[in-house]
Specification:
Elements lengths: L1 E9 L5 E5 H7 L6 E6 L2 E10 L4 E4 H7 L4 E9 L2 E5 L1 E7 L5 H14 L6 E11 L4 E8 L4 E8 L3 E4 L5 H10 L3 E3 L6 H8 L12 E3 L3 H11 L2 E5 L9 E5 L6 E7 L2 E7 L1 H12 L4 E5 L4 E2 L2 E11 L5 E10 L14 E4 H9 L3 H26 L5 E8 L5 E7 L7 H4 L3 H18 L12
Length: 449
């Protein structure tokens, strides 16, 4: 059973929780029933009492035990003698508490346009976590007052973490957070490929991929694929990538690498290339992929699609941008001189599409990306809440899944594309994801678009 109520702390002795008679009837609970009331990671034994008032009241002793705020609009969830108060949402936003005020300003804008309706949201830092007592200090946003307060609070019902956690703290969160800490684990490019490759709806969108082992593989791949792209199994921003392509009318290979954000090109025989690759790669794990034809007017172009789970925990595409590499570069990353622009404008110019055709291609891209998110979550057994999916479109407009970014997703790219609306939509999506994972149903709560 679920319900919503204005609940406040009352300066009263005892371990009581007063709820309206109508709510007790809805929950089918008799007055005087002892229950365990839960708020985040804290729990306390209380006696339920009825009241004619519309608001609920929690005795000060119980409120202090639960680290409950003075008041707020909360949802209540009753099941088998346990009454949960929430949702309490958390964002691990910084390493140190001194950086939190800047994060507060960001979410002020989010709540200005998309107000939180029930529960609370807390921004906290790594150095504010008190794992011994399953509590933390942070800046709490209470939608009842539309203001932030610095408070000591229990662990939240669901957490969006924006940085790495040590093993011990990760295990502590897993034990005491009832909803989810999403995007906890990190998967390499090879592991992601292994999760996706057997899905018949996704396999046509995956470039042929293999683990790099040495000379024999490279020669075979060049003969089979006509060109090879080598990437570190673990890595980002296009660092340490290598592209191998044939010289027309010759057995020589063109080997292009990125060094100090510059593109370096060498013409080598296959034998020389093997030695050169060994010097560059050494024993570091790499994957090999078929080189795709995604260069338009001397520029590599790919796309970043932002995905999130909505309030019903369903995958949705928040939006996308186009990334255009510097002329002659083998990657599109900004660190290599790339630029970000509107994805719709880019696909129209690359493929001479009408608006209707561009809309259809966008929906096809979004569908493939959401399917990949569902598959990776299912096969890995990890709870995810957001992705930054990199895809490419070749000259035939075929969709290729390049990478499923899930640790450090750069959500500022839309700002560089001049799309402020998408940037703020992404910030809002983090709250929606938390609401979808907190364990409190959201179907009856109107979602602001």
């Amino acid at each position: 059973m679920n319900g919503s109520i204005h609940l406040q702390k009352e300066n009263q002795k005892g371990q009581d929780l007063h709820l309206p008679h109508s709510l007790l009837q809805e929950f089918a609970i008799q007055e005087g029933t002892p229950v365990i009331v839960e708020f985040g990671s804290k729990a306390a034994a209380v006696t339920l009492k009825g009241t004619k008032a519309q608001n609920g009241r929690l005795s000060s002793a119980t409120a202090d035990e639960l680290l409950f705020p003075e008041e707020g609009i909360f949802q209540l969830q009753y099941k088998r003698g346990h009454l949960r108060i929430g949702p309490h949402l958390g964002i691990l936003a910084a390493n140190r508490e001194k950086y939190l005020p800047g994060k507060v300003r960001r979410f002020n804008r989010v709540f200005q346009d998309h107000p939180l309706q029930t529960g609370i949201l807390t921004l906290f830092s790594l150095d504010s976590i008190q794992s011994t007592h399953t509590q933390l200090s942070g800046y709490m946003y209470n939608p009842l007052h539309q203001s932030w307060e610095k408070r000591l609070l229990p662990y939240p019902d669901a957490v969006y973490k924006r940085m790495s956690l040590k093993k011990e703290l990760k295990a502590d969160f897993d034990r005491h957070i009832s909803g989810a800490v999403f995007n906890q684990a990190s998967y390499s490019k090879w592991q992601v490929y292994q999760c996706l490759k057997d899905d018949p709806a996704l396999s046509p969108h995956l470039p042929p991929t293999a683990l790099y082992t040495g000379r024999e593989n490279t020669t075979d791949w060049m003969n089979q694929w006509g060109g090879v792209f080598l990437k570190p199994v673990k890595g980002s921003y296009g660092r340490k990538t290598i592209q191998i392509s044939p010289f027309a009318g010759s057995r020589d290979w063109r080997v292009q690498t990125r060094e100090n954000n510059s593109s370096i090109q060498k013409r080598l025989t296959p034998e020389e290339a093997v030695v050169h690759l060994k010097e560059i790669i050494g024993r570091k794990p790499y994957i090999a992929q078929k080189r795709l034809d995604i260069t338009f007017d001397h520029h590599v172009i790919d796309y970043r699609i932002y995905l999130h789970k909505d309030r019903q925990a369903q995958w949705k595409a928040t939006g996308w941008v186009a990334k255009t590499g510097a002329a002659g570069s083998i990657v599109s990353n900004l660190a290599g001189g790339g630029q970000v622009s509107s994805a719709e404008d880019r696909i129209k110019s690359c493929f001479s599409l009408t608006k209707a055709q561009a809309d259809h291609l966008r929906e096809e891209v979004f569908s493939v990306c959401c399917r990949a998110a569902e598959r990776l979550e299912k096969e890995s057994g990890t709870v995810f809440g957001y992705f930054g999916v990199d895809i490419a479109l070749d000259k035939e407009k075929k969709i290729w899944l390049i990478e499923m970014n899930h640790r450090y997703v750069d959500d500022r790219l839309p700002l560089q594309a001049g799309d402020d609306d998408l940037y703020w939509h992404i910030q809002k999506s983090y709250v929606d994801t938390l609401l979808g994972m907190c364990g409190f149903p959201q179907e009856h709560i109107k979602e602001n678009q």
